[in-house]
Amino acid sequence: MPFVPPAVDDVLAALTERFGAVESSVYRGQTQLVVSDRDAFDVLRHLADAGFDLLVDVTCVDYLEYRGARRRYGMVYLLASTATNQRLTVRVFLDDPEPAVQSVVPIWPAANWLEREVWDMFGIRFIGHPDLRRLMMPEEFAAHPLRKDYPLQGRGERHNFPVITRDHS
Amino acid sequence: MSLAPPEIDVTQRGPEAGARSEDYLWTLNFGPQHPATHTTLRLVLKLEGERVVDAMPEIGYLHSGFEKIGEHLTFNQYVTVTDRMNYISPMANNVAWHHAVETLLGLELTPRCKYIRTIIAELARISDHLLCNGAVGLDTGAFTFFLYGFYQREVIYDIFETLCGARFTNSYTRVGGVSQDFTPLVIEKIRTFLKTFPKTLDDMERLLTRNRIFVDRTKGVGVLAKEEAIAGGATGPVARASGVTRDLRKDEPYLAYEDFQFQVCCASAGDCYARYLVRMQEMRESLKIVHQALENLPAGDVNVGIDQRVARPTKQQVYSTIEGTISHFELSMANRGFEVPCAESYAAIEAPNGELGFYVVGDGSETAYRARCRPPSVLHFALFPQLIRGHTLSDVVAVLGSLNIIAAELDR
């Protein structure tokens, strides 16, 4: 039998008590919460206080071409507890033109580079991030390559690089 | 030995007292091409004499858009890309990727497949730890130790070559199974390795574990406290050396790990030496797991059955049964393939470096809509500035080596 992670019913009950009804679903034993971008920071801080001390991952999915999707960006916060081994996924949905969400670096320092990567790849701004620079791509790069409207073969972004001639080098 | 970084008061010296303290600092660029970074990563170090005041890591030199490629290759094709992430232990990446895909599909593997994957994942862990500890030794001046480790890595490469034809980029797993079953020759080679390796491991420990030069270079260097490790998202040997007892093999037993007896290796010091010790001990535990798995290897099919319609049937089935023929046709045609739910899931394994997980979004097609890799190296490298502050320049390579930073996994 595949391993089933410990239930998170107690956490959900406490969360509902404080923030009202929270949209949640379970797939393959993994519980997923959907919270609004306004509540996201408070909910995540509450969860961190409730024992989810390990931020496993922060990432994003661009739902531009996903069948039936209404919102464009779906932030993914994967949380885990080192004491109880519970796991929880928190989703925050964002839209164009200015996708932005509160940074969780004050809660988990681990979010620093993970949020920089999401900014780099998806162009989502993290409000209150101490050092929101690109992580992988060069600073001159103009696009956000993991967005679905960015083609696999690139879009002539080499034109954005400064041209260094022999005189300037 | 005091572990706290020394107080540096550079304003109280020289005739120009009152000058800004950073005026006296020395900036050193380390990498991206440097033998001791082992891969392409860059560090900008601020030095006060020989002491590192601050470090600014910069990554991205090896960024190859693996996650973007993952949205264009099928679940079986993408395994070749995972080989290139952490190329020190590609087998572990293969297992992690298909573990995530099978979690999304809800597939239950055959017992033989679970055991085989466990064995190769543990062999990959041994080879990863050999290289990591070898590199720490090499960077701190122990060249023989590194060669001992590399010789044994060669033996593991040889096992993998016998198993699947490839030494380095194995691409061994498939959705619902593996590409080749164990042959008697592979089992014999693993048995020989299990017999000969402990002796080499003893030799290696005798070379380095109580070696005064090595201990002086690594003890008390790059100390990571338990709270910092959890807050910084450290996993694997790096976290376990700081006293975090988290090991997914025990905490969330996947594959066949429930069936085996082994210890989770931990230390409390959190320095480079503790990370070295944890890795050395984990190799012995991995040997135990491989031994138990190999002696109890279940008989039977290695891939899931035809009824699941995800793994290719054997030639025998294709030529003699109608189900086999249909299944083979369905899986081979470009516009067919297997069905994937429109859902998202995350699954992780305890890779040699830490928690290696994939967040896979399925959209009904055989290609992932999004294939996010959660690389342990990124979070470990983000911890680097706080580990090195206050130590000397020569400690940079010791700390870097003990975190086992693999740029290909870092940048993807």
Describe what is shown at a glance.
Chain A has helices spanning 9-19, 40-49, 111-122, and strands at 23-27, 30-35, 54-62, 73-80, 87-94, 100-102, 125-127. With 169 residues, chain A is of the alpha/beta class. In chain A, the strands form 2 sheets. Chain A has a 5-stranded mixed sheet. In chain A, strands 6-7 form a two-stranded parallel sheet.
Question: How does this model look, in words?
Answer:
The complex is a heterodimer of chains A (169) and B (412). Chain A has one domain: NADH:ubiquinone oxidoreductase Nqo5 subunit (Beta Polymerase, domain 2), CATH 3.30.460. The model of chain A has no long low-confidence stretch (mean pLDDT 86). By secondary structure, chain A is an alpha/beta fold. In chain A, helix 3 (111-122) links the parallel strand 6 and strand 7 (125-127). Chain A is elongated and about 65 Å long. Chain A contains 3 helices and 7 strands; from the N terminus they run H-E-E-H-E-E-E-E-H-E. Chain B has 412 residues and is an alpha+beta fold. Helices cover 46% and strands 12% of the residues of chain B. Chain B has 2 domains: 10-58, no CATH class; 66-411, Cytochrome-c3 Hydrogenase, chain B (Orthogonal Bundle), CATH 1.10.645. Chain B is globular, with a radius of gyration of 23 Å. In chain B, strand 6 and strand 7 form a beta hairpin. In chain B, the strands form 3 sheets. Chain B has a 3-stranded antiparallel β-sheet with strand order 1-2-3. A 3-stranded antiparallel β-sheet of chain B has the order 6-7-8. Chain B contains 17 helices and 8 strands. Chains A and B meet through strand 3 and helix 3 of A and helix 1, strand 6, strand 7, strand 8 and helix 14 of B.
